Amino acid sequence: MVSVNLEAKKTVDVMIEKQDELNIAVSQLSNGATIIDCGVNVDGSFKAGELYTKVCLGGLADVGISIPGDLSEKFALPSVKIKTDSPAISTLGSQKAGWSVSVGDFFALGSGPARAICKKPAETYEEIGYEDTEADLAILTLEADVLPGEDVAQYIADECNVDVKDVYLLVAPTSSLVGSIQISGRVVENGTYKMLEAIKFDVTKVKHAAGIAPIAPIDPDGLKAMGKTNDAVLFGGRTYYYVESDENDDIADVAAKLPSSAADGYGKPFFDVFKEAEFDFYKIDKGMFAPAEVGINDLTTGKIYKEGYVNVDLLKKSFGVDLSLIHISEPTRR
After folding, report:
1. What residues form DSSP beta bridges with 229?
2. Sheet holding 34-37, edge to edge
3. Integer distance in angstroms from the first to the last C-alpha of the chain?
4. What does the pLDDT read at residue 19?
5. 326 closest CA partner among 35, 153, 149, 71
6. By three-state DSSP, how is residue 267 classified?
7. Which of 293, 288, 111, 318 is nearest to 212 (CA)?
8. What is the pLDDT of residues 33-77, one digit of tens each?
9. DSSP code at position 218
10. Which residues face 105 on adjacent strands?
């Protein structure tokens, strides 16, 4: 079976080789672990965001950035595009922020391939039938405002049963360009997560998936950045899933329940919801974490289901966009 760590290492090698071009910084800790700073003490870049997101997905997805949108609405934003032919493994087996790394004063949400070695959380890997048993190295991406030290690297090495010299830690704050890109890059994962956790649908039946979400504007306030980046997917994310259904599957019902707008708490920017939940993710309806618009192609019946919608008004509210101040010149006629 494919190793998400070995696949992601190919992208990590590119990042190390092109660190100057990517505006990132690579260093080694005294115990030999490799740290790749993508936004703590560096600016990062769009390309670094693409590569970071691909690492999160275990190297099993194509990641790109485009500028879609209706220009007549004056609200076109750079967006992240994701395509994968291994949806369950790449998103839930790797990209999911399923490892809360807490060592001393350091805390970060951990995503990426290393999770598949030590199976964090174990139930996710049982449900998708995957474990990375081939890798002799561990790659983890950390959503944090500070760089980890030797104790963090050693902890991860011990949990994954690898030599600490074979640990690679990529770090990007939420309030950075790379951080904003990689969170929007979870647009497909948010859908597979909701299928598994809230709808209880067998995600191994999802054979292919694609999605696109706007990149939230960068906010130096970490909590506000968390709100905006989540809203980019909740109100602006669009996904498409190709599902091989069984005769007992109600794909129309799955599609109806899947968009973020189907959740009870829908209707407010995520920062407001998070604040009302006393900044505790576990108090928030799991159904909130989903794309805005969903399409499902049932490969067994050939039917297509489309539910949800992009909520431009809530995106504007979340991002603090005052379009009355934006002036678009009329084209010059000759």
Report:
1. none
2. 25-28, 34-37, 167-171, 138-143, 106-111, 99-103
3. 62
4. 98
5. 71
6. coil
7. 293
8. 999 999 999 999 999 999 999 999 999 999 999 976 554 455 678
9. P
10. none
